[in-house]
């Protein structure tokens, strides 16, 4: 180890609305996007690089993201490829609790996790939405997520007829 | 303020991630139009279906069936590492030798054609590598002496020396020489007998003059010289040879000098095919002389990279008969495609190698402007390989003429199945696919995805002559091969049922083939029993239209999967399966083991007209049961409906020659059941080549009068 440098240097990030957050290099490297940025800075650049601007993430969401990455900084994170084979059955109770938030926050978290390329966080947050959808009728899904019904009666009838094929008895 | 954080506002890629958690996409698809569209994409990563095309032979094919069905075989034979090759080959030829018309025999030396040629009475083309022989060894001519083999096309890989003379009995019309050899007495003796020699290809030769001097005595139709000619002396020799030739229709000269090209363009006005590699130091005006060859149907031009092919001038040539155009080397600009297509309206075949820089744009231009194209092959250099984008497929022009399409495989590697299906649809008559068209379907599918996939497949198959006979196999037991289609000439869906069939998902998937008339159940019934209720319910739901039912054991060589289907099985359950098909007319059962455990049951299907019982030895197993025991046991446990039965057939297929079955048991059975009171019986024996062995097939058939 390089004894002149701290083992986990501090890194600063700035949200789209100008708020600065401080976290550790180890935590922030869970973001594939930031990892790529840092790798491009080159030798010895981390301490001197200044705050990293994140134009697509607001401060409320960035705070949530930082809370999550700091909690998981010591865990081995699955890659995007590994995530594909993951089953939805079990998740860490801490994460379950962490994701207890209103829908607006959840949408923003999903968008941020996608932009920052944090596969595990994206997986957890999209799974959360999927669990909300589960076992709901089309009308219930529309109401819950405020989605407009753009089918004409004839169209929906045709789709339903088509779907009879895979209905369970 | 409008709430921008809405599920609907999330990008497609994220919505798809959310939807993928769902096992049932039905409700999602009904929420709104966008969700409906998105759910149809969910299947794409996972579908696994293999459509094999006519000409491809690969492990999924039943080789035995191909050998038996094909009228001609191209044999590529490598005897290395095969024990007792000669004996096995001899046996193989006994059954299939008459179908062999071509032998390509590049890499082995142990297989001596002289020993086998009499077993291939229809051999027309032979690529021959002479076995290494001791100079003093006496060459046997025994099998050649009275041969009526119609060998016309001979390709020689090494100097045959004395062996030349054995070929003199054939009426060789096309001769290809791949390696240098001496024009000696043996060759002259062979050559003197080639009365009808028309085509000569020379790939490697040192002393051209002696060979061309001899060839000058013949009037050839096609002359190809493929090795490097760089001496002026050679030019003179070739010119001298060309002066003797009046009938040449096809010329190929690897590195043609300005002098020879000028001569050819001036003197061979009836030339139909010209293939040249242009020299680096050529004068520009020489290329323009090709425009004199008004009869040209095929033009192949290769170029050095430093000196480009003059494509702009080529676009102005007036060659009204040109149908095939091949380029190799040189940079080809996208804007030239239209010019080329406008100028050569009859082009049916186009090949471009290492040429285009804008790979997919050029491909698209070609497919847009060359409307008559039957064959297209475009490659590019490694540096210009790009993944073909989806726009390529959305803007693709359909071309029903296109039969062959060879493209850079890497560029199409990441293609989605939907795109591949579209391509298959746009080129309905494509015969030679560059690779098998594959669709992957992982175990985590859902009924909704499968439905869309099958609808697409049906759509493709309906418009595609070549694929229309595809069948689909749902193999629920193995990971990646969950669903695959294979070409086996039957319009049927084979359901390969393994241990997962009782799964709820599987149950829904099985609802697919509602309108099937023929159904094959490939099954280990012992496993099926654990989900019997679901299974019977399913069969009833699809069974009404089925008139033909086959129940057979799995053909896979995995012993566990191939467990006998009637081993320790419940006869009542089998009868229930059969009864799920109330309109059944033909019942075909493969039985394997004499261990039925329950009392006799009555099969109540009153419309059954034809019953076929088969007992067949497994290839991997060395055990041979007495098939008559199988049948006897079967008869003990089943009673068939009276009156309707018109045909009853028993087939025993055994690797053991003496296998017979007990006719008395059959007659007893028929009598006991009051079946076929008045019938005619037929018996026949047949031998079939299967899995490198002879299979003896005994058939007993009773037909009502």
From TrEMBL, chain A:
GO terms for biological process: ubiquitin-dependent protein catabolic process. Transmembrane segments: none annotated. It comes from the Eukaryota. The keyword Ion transport does not apply. Residues 120-166 form the SKP1 component dimerisation domain. InterPro entries: SKP1, SKP1-like, SKP1-like_dim_sf, SKP1/BTB/POZ_sf, Skp1_comp_dimer, Skp1_comp_POZ. Pathway: Protein modification; protein ubiquitination. Keywords: Ubl conjugation pathway. Residues 11-74 form the SKP1 component POZ domain. Belongs to the SKP1 family. This is Skp1-related protein. It comes from Polypedilum vanderplanki (Sleeping chironomid midge). The lineage of its organism: Eukaryota, Metazoa, Ecdysozoa, Arthropoda, Hexapoda.
UniProtKB/TrEMBL annotation, chain B:
It comes from the Eukaryota. It comes from Polypedilum vanderplanki (Sleeping chironomid midge). SUPFAM superfamilies: RNI-like. It holds the Pfam family F-box-like. This is F-box domain-containing protein. InterPro entries: F-box_dom, LRR_dom_sf. Coiled coil: none annotated. Residues 8-39 form the F-box domain.
């Amino acid at each position: 180890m390089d004894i002149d440098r701290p083992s986990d240097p501090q890194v600063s990030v700035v949200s789209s609305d100008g708020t600065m957050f401080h976290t550790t290099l180890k935590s922030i490297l869970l973001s594939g996007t930031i990892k790529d940025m840092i790798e491009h800075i080159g030798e010895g650049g981390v301490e001197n690089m200044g705050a990293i601007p994140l134009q697509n993430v607001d401060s409320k969401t960035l705070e949530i993201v930082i809370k999550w990455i700091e909690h998981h900084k010591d865990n081995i994170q699955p890659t995007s490829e590994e995530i594909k084979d993951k089953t939805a059955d079990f998740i860490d109770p801490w994460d379950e609790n962490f994701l207890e938030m209103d829908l607006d926050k959840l949408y923003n978290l999903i968008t941020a996790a996608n932009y920052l390329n944090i596969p595990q966080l994206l997986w957890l947050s999209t799974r959360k939405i999927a669990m909300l959808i589960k076992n709901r009728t089309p009308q219930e899904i529309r109401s819950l997520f405020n989605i407009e019904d753009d089918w004409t009666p004839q169209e929906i009838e045709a789709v339903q007829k088509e779907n009879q094929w895979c209905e369970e008895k | 303020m409008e709430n921008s954080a809405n599920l609907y506002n999330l990008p497609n890629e994220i919505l798809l991630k959310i939807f993928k958690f769902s096992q049932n996409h039905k409700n999602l698809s009904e929420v709104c139009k966008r969700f409906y569209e998105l759910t149809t994409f969910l299947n794409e990563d996972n579908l696994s279906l293999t459509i094999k095309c006519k000409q491809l032979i690969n492990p999924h094919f039943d080789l035995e069936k191909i050998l038996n069905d094909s009228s001609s075989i191209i044999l590529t034979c490598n005897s290395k590492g095969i024990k007792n090759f000669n004996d096995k080959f001899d046996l193989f030829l006994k059954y299939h030798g008459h179908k062999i018309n071509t032998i390509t025999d590049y890499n082995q030396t142990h297989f001596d054609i002289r020993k086998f040629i009499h077993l291939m009475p229809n051999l027309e083309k032979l690529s021959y590598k002479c076995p290494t022989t001791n100079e003093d060894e006496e060459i046997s001519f025994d099998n050649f002496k009275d041969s009526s083999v119609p060998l016309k096309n001979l390709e020689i890989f090494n100097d045959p020396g004395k062996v030349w003379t054995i070929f003199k009995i054939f009426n060789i019309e096309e001769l290809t020489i791949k390696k240098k050899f001496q024009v000696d007495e043996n060759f002259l003796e062979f050559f003197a007998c080639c009365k009808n020699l028309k085509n000569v290809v020379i790939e490697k030769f040192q002393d051209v003059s002696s060979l061309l001097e001899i060839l000058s005595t013949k009037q050839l139709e096609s002359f190809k010289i493929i090795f490097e000619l760089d001496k002026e002396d050679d030019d003179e020799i070739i010119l001298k040879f060309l002066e003797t030739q009046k009938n040449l229709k096809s010329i190929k000269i690897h590195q043609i000098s300005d002098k020879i090209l000028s001569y050819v363009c001036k003197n061979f006005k009836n030339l139909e095919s010209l293939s040249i590699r242009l020299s680096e130091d050529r004068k520009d005006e020489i290329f323009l002389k090709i425009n004199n060859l008004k009869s040209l149907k095929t033009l192949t031009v290769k170029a050095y990279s430093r000196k480009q092919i003059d494509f702009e001038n080529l676009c102005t040539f007036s060659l009204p008969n040109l149908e095939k155009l091949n380029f190799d080397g040189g940079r080809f600009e996208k804007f030239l495609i239209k010019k080329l297509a406008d100028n050569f309206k009859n082009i049916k075949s186009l090949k471009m190698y290492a040429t285009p820089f804008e790979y997919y744009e050029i491909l698209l231009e070609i497919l847009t402007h060359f409307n008559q194209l039957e064959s297209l092959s475009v490659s590019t250099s490694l540096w210009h390989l790009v993944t073909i984008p989806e726009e390529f497929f959305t803007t693709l022009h359909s071309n029903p003429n296109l039969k062959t399409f060879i493209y850079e495989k890497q560029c199409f590697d990441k293609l989605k199945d939907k795109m591949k299906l579209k391509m298959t649809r746009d080129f309905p008559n494509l015969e030679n696919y560059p690779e098998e068209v594959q669709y992957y379907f992982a175990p985590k599918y859902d009924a909704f995805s499968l439905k869309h996939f099958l609808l697409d497949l049906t759509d493709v198959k309906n418009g595609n002559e070549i694929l229309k006979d595809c069948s689909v196999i749902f193999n629920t037991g193995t990971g990646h091969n969950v669903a695959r289609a294979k070409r086996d000439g039957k319009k049927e869906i084979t359901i390969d049922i393994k241990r997962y069939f009782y799964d709820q998902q599987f149950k829904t998937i099985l609802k697919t083939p509602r309108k099937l008339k023929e159904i094959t159940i490939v099954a280990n019934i012992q496993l099926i029993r654990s989900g019997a209720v679901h299974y019977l319910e399913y069969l009833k739901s699809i069974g009404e239209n089925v008139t033909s039912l086959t129940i057979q054991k799995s053909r896979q060589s995995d012993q566990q999967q191939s467990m006998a289907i009637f081993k320790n099985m419940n006869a009542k359950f089998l009868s229930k399966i059969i009864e799920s098909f109330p309109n059944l007319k033909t019942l075909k059962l493969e039985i394997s083991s004499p261990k039925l455990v329950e009392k006799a049951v009555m099969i109540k299907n009153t419309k059954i007209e034809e019953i076929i019982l088969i007992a067949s030895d497994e290839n991997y197993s060395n055990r041979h049961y007495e098939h008559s025991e199988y049948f006897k046991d079967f008869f003990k446990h089943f009673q068939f409906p009276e009156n309707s039965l018109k045909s009853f057939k028993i087939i025993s297929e055994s690797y053991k020659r003496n296998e017979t079955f007990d006719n008395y048991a059959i007659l007893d059975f028929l009598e006991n059941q009051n079946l076929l009171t008045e019938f005619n019986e037929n018996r026949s024996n047949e031998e079939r080549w299967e899995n490198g062995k002879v299979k003896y097939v005994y058939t007993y058939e009773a037909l009502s009068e």
